[in-house]
Amino acid sequence: MLTKNIPYTFNRGGYFYFSRRVPSDLLHHYSYPRIVQGLRTKSQQTAKTRALVAAAKLDERWSQLRLAHGDVFGAKLQKVGTEAAPHSRRYNVEPQVAEALGPTLAEALKLYVTQKGKGRGKTFQAGAERACSYLIAACGVKPLTSYSRTDALKFRDWLIAKGLSGSSVTRVMSSLKAVINFATSELALETRNPFIGIYHDRKAGVLDRKPIPLISIRKIQSQCVKGDDEMRWLAALVSDTGMRLAEATGLLREDFVHVEGDLPFIRIIPYTWRTLKTESSKRNVPLVGASLWAAKRIMSQEPVSRFAFPRYNKTAITNANSASAALNKWMKPMIPAGCSMHSFRHSMRDRLRAVQCPADIVDQIGGWQTNGVGHGYGEGYPIEVLHEWLSKVSP
User: Fold this and answer.
1) What are phi and psi of 39, to 5 degrees?
2) Which runs of consecutive H residues, i.e. helices, occur in the chain?
């Protein structure tokens, strides 16, 4: 049965499938009257994005088929023996049509994902697909070079009317601009990207993420020791390292180094099941305080998996969203309104500021990008220096 809230889809066994009837005038091109294909996802949002992209591609294909096999206007006025054939003949104009219209948005998306998506996580492709599907929903299916400045303004207003925050609009616009810019360059198209320079309020609807007060952090850490299970180990690990939750959730046991030694630390590197946000996210983070306690508890367990947190790594992709939802729900009574698991990163930056830690050391601990050409040279501060500063905030 088709799902009402997601066009062209139905759900079976928890997974979404794309389903669309072939138009009656094009049935002779197909061996079956309906196109059905698995979307390989249980997520409603992902299914909606993929279904809209698939529907847009079909619309383009069907338009080309109709153009390629339709009667040409004025054909019966032409003389027999000229370049045009008699009226009864069907003309194959698909190559000419394709050349006139140029590459489609779907083709640009495919090129972008294929070339730029190598070694990137699924979120990279999902973001590009989402942006393109939004444009199709707002402005319709058009050749890449046919989108105008008017379309770009309409698209911006459509995103805002959809209820997206300013930061979400920025992400969608950035993804779309990247797709079009890359295709324009690779295909040597002489056109200007109409989506460049579109103004919108980036702060609209954006909630400031507040740091968690130190007294609340200590309370959470105390409850982690009492709970003493995998979920609480994860919270404690993040609390005194300032790691991103996804970074921690996708760790392997082998990423915990010298846990029983003098300078224990975590090695954060990209994996296929969990990529890193930026190049500077690849780093070593000292283990101190509650984070060291959590690391020792993890490593003391009988290894049933390579993963430090097996419950969130049962599939090919680390399920950091599940961890986030569970931990935020658990912590809610212990933290001020507006705080979440991500707030530990904000807190760590403030805690390091409070002991006058140099900004570039703060950046290295948190995996933030440090501006300036010179900061790209060398391998950064040794683990001993990082450990010294983290020890000052997590005794």
Assistant:
1) -95, -5
2) 44-68, 94-101, 105-116, 122-139, 149-161, 166-186, 214-227, 230-239, 245-249, 289-300, 320-331, 343-354, 359-366, 383-393
Side-chain-side CA neighbours of 321 within 13 Å: the count stands at 3
What DSSP character marks residue 307? B
Cβ(4)–Cβ(51) below 8 Å: no
CA atoms 335, 338, 341, 342: torsion sign: negative
Question: Looking at residue 311, what DSSP letter applies?
Answer: G
DSSP lists the bridge partners of residue 38 as 17
CATH superfamily of the 214-393 domain = Intergrase catalytic core (1.10.443.10)
Q: Helical H runs in 69-213? A: 94-101, 105-116, 122-139, 149-161, 166-186
Q: How far is CA 385 from the centre of its chain?
A: 34
Q: What crossing angle do the helices spanning 44-68 and 122-139 adopt, rounded to 10°?
A: 60
Bridge-partner residues for 4, per DSSP? none
pLDDT, mean of residues 37-50:
85
DSSP per-residue codes, 100-131? HH--BHHHHHHHHHHHH-TT--HHHHHHHHHH
Is domain 102-206 classified as CATH 3.40.50.720?
A: no
Is 124's pLDDT higher than 50?
A: yes
Q: What are phi and psi of 309, to 5 degrees?
A: -130, 80
pLDDT of residue 32: 78
DSSP state of 351: H
**pLDDT digit string (tens) for 141-180?**
888 888 999 999 999 999 988 888 888 899 999 999 999 9
d(C-alpha 347, C-alpha 340), whole Å: 11
Q: Would you say 267 and 257 are in contact if contact means Cβ atoms under 8 Å apart?
A: yes
Whole-angstrom distance, CA of residue 155 vs CA of residue 136: 9
Domain boundaries, the chain: 1-69, 102-206, 214-393
Tokens describing residue 59: 């619309």
Q: Cβ distance 3 to 26 under 8 Å? A: no
